[in-house]
Amino acid sequence: MNKLLVSVTASLALLAAAPAVAQQQNQDGEPVATESDGYANPEAAGTQKTNYSDAELRQFVEAQSGLMEVREEYIEKIESADSQEQAKQLQMEANDHMVEIIRDAGMDIPTYNAIATAYNSEPKVRNRVDALM
Prior knowledge:
Layout: H1 2-16, E1 24-25, E2 31-32, H2 54-79, H3 84-104, H4 109-121, H5 123-132
């Protein structure tokens, strides 16, 4: 039971993190790591691209709205999972939904992750995104 609690807690942390970390998949459907992981790196402040178009930032805001809904839905499901395996499966489903939402917003995963990283480390980008929300 303790392992399940740790797994559920880790899953919740991943789902609750804003913005979401999405994975790309190769042609075989296997996850592929991306350079930008969506987490803030304070030491990198001033090094991120900041000249995103308004259209790109609107797509980011649209995707972010949908991702928050997925997080809320799956946090409850993961909390009530009966096993570590079920919690892991739910986490994978949530990730798949998040990738779909990002793509439906007209973005690719690397661009979404790059804007998410810039949002967390670049005040200029954060202010522009916040103005669109």
